[in-house]
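Query structure, 252 tokens:
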């Protein structure tokens, strides 16, 4: 009889080899993209938490009279950018009865994801988020604006970033922040006056929907501000307090 043991071993080896290659292919085709998506999602959630930490340090600088903060961070999956207020197109225009309009440029601290589409930004005391190449935005954390219905006093805190030039960070580093000068306070009075806030968007970096939801929601006043075209109106306001903080950001 002929010996066929060599043929059986070759067939068995080929079968095992094909099963192994098929398994690796399935993992590469389905498992690896899922792992990448999970990593991107984790990086974005970590950056959301980091932005909340930055917002907390900004509150310490502006409301607790802390002169300097140095935020340690690990930026993964993207880059963190700092934009001087003069390099951004967003504008907040505040109009009040009988007073000069306040036109305010905030500047930005912005994270842009490399693998995903998320753009997370600290802007004028708020944390806003949008998707690259998509419309719409959302506010992850609100600024500190208040309206006292008893005295009809509207308090607005404006936060501006100043930087020597646009800089970015990817990986481990620090974000040094300090107060440039004493806050500027405007306190005009006009019994029964009207406050009109207009947000001018940057077409390439649009957070108008996030600010619209904030202004028309119930965070400032029950029922929200009245939307009129691209502006938001609150009346009556007997006193308007606008306090502007200038924060200097050093090189990361």
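Result returned for the query:
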């Amino acid at each position: 009889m002929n010996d066929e043991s060599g043929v059986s071993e070759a067939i068995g080896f080929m079968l095992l080899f094909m099963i192994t290659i098929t398994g690796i292919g399935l993992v590469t085709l389905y498992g690896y993209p899922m792992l990448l998506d999970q990593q991107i999602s984790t990086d974005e959630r970590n950056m959301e938490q980091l932005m909340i930490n930055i917002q907390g340090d900004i509150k310490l600088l502006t409301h607790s009279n802390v002169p300097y903060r140095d935020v340690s961070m690990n930026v993964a999956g993207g880059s963190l950018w700092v934009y001087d207020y003069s390099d951004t197109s967003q504008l907040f225009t505040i109009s009040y009865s009988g007073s000069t309009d306040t036109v305010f440029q905030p500047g930005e601290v912005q994270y842009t994801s490399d693998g995903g589409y998320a753009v997370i930004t600290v802007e004028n005391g708020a944390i806003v988020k949008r998707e690259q190449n998509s419309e719409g935005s959302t506010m992850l954390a609100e600024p500190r604006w208040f309206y006292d219905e008893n005295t009809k006093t509207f308090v607005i805190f404006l936060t501006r970033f100043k930087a020597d030039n646009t800089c970015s960070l990817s990986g481990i580093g620090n974000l040094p922040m300090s107060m440039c000068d004493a806050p500027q306070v405007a306190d005009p009075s006009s019994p029964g006056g009207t406050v009109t806030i207009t947000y001018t968007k940057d077409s390439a970096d649009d957070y108008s929907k996030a600010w619209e939801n904030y202004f028309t929601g119930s965070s400032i006043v029950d029922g929200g501000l009245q939307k009129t075209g691209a502006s938001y109106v609150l009346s009556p306001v007997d006193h308007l307090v606008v306090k502007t903080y200038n924060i200097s950001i050093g090189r990361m």
